[in-house]
Amino acid sequence: MGIASEEAIHQFRTLMDQIDEPLKKTFENIHNGYPNETLVRFLKAREWNVANAHKMLLDCLKWRVQNEIDNILLKPIVPVELYRAVRESQLIGLSGYSREGLPVFAIGVGLSTYDKASVRYYVQSYIQINEYRDQVILPSATKKYGRHINTCLKVLDMTGLKLSALSQIKLLTIITSIDDLNYPEKTTTYYIVNAPYVFSACWKVVKPLLQERTRKKIQVLSGSGKDELLKVMDYDSLPHFCRKEGLGSSRHSGEAAGNCFSLDHPFHQQLYNHIKHQASVHQRAGKPIKQGSFHVDLPDPPAEEAEIARSIESELHKLRDPNGFHVSVDSSESNDD
């Protein structure tokens, strides 16, 4: 790290030493003993501009305090039938770890329907997974591998992506904005697999709109991406939809132990049990928990993401024929551009 970078971190650290409670407490929860590494993430997200990174981090801390994000892992989505419905329609899970110790998160973009619950439950679930990753998964990986690990890999399965995805763009933009504004630089690489024609068409218009830093993180792999992914992770850590061509991210493919989207997968069982345990401890301490879903302030998307969403909407509309029928989106038409 160069002298200029070290000076930027020093300036940023000096500014953060001046904050008071409750922002100081939530900052401690974020950095988890690694304040400088956290400052670097926000500096990277703002091209090493200290003033902009400082504003971004303060906005993040205020958002966390106002929405009680530090307590979101005390808040189970109940009843369990509702949580199961969320899991079946918001496909995300932990499939394993890379050879460098980075958690591998799998996301079924194409087959996630987001139609079994209200938006606030999907947002609550997503933030809970982020917080569990940061407070439990990453510290555990750091201890296991003997070095600080604060990022993950994501494998995005586009199987089943259709033009009807237009209806999900608003929710996906909200989730992406929450990630970018409050959990910056937590993903090292995004691997896109099983990409059908509709993705390829949208990617061509989105790619030029992305910042170079973001573009470098995205790799569109051929087919299921199995051969390329095996260069960075062992077979056991491959998401189930990458293990053989044509499997896709079906909600029911494979045994529960192998399908990381399933509520019966160890990751989701451990996550749900952790939340229930934390809630129980909190209540036994005489601190009642208000029932109902977490109501999180939804951020306005940054200008870049708003432009991307508009471009995707425009491209999806173009792909509809004049009679309202969808064009073919057979996965065999995918390309790797």
Summarize the structure in words.
InterPro entries: CRAL-TRIO_dom, CRAL-TRIO_dom_sf, CRAL/TRIO_N_dom, CRAL/TRIO_N_dom_sf. The protein has 337 residues and is of the alpha/beta class. It has two domains: 3-66, Orthogonal Bundle (Helicase, Ruva Protein, domain 3), CATH 1.10.8; 73-276, CRAL-TRIO lipid binding domain (Phosphatidylinositol Transfer Protein Sec14p, 3-Layer(aba) Sandwich), CATH 3.40.525.10. The protein is 46% helix and 8% strand. The protein contains twelve helices and five strands. A five-stranded mixed sheet has the order 1-2-3-4-5. Strand 1 (92-97) and strand 2 (103-108) form a beta hairpin. Helix 1 crosses helix 3 and helix 2 crosses helix 3. The longest helix has 27 residues, at 119-145.
Name the descriptors:
CRAL/TRIO_N_dom; CRAL-TRIO domain-containing protein; about 10% strand; 5 strands; Phosphatidylinositol Transfer Protein Sec14p; disordered C terminus; CRAL-TRIO_dom_sf; 2 domains; Helicase, Ruva Protein, domain 3; CRAL/TRIO_N_dom_sf
Distance between the termini: 33 Å
Which regions contain 5 or more consecutive residues with pLDDT less than 50?
Answer: 250-256, 322-337
**CATH secondary-structure class of the largest domain:** Alpha Beta
User: What is the CATH topology assignment of the largest domain?
Assistant: Phosphatidylinositol Transfer Protein Sec14p
Beta percentage is: 5-15%
The Rg value, from CA coordinates, equals 20 Å
| Tally of discrete structural domains | 2
What's the story with the biggest beta sheet? 5 strands, mixed
The structure class reads alpha/beta
Tell me what the CATH architecture of the largest domain is. Answer: 3-Layer(aba) Sandwich
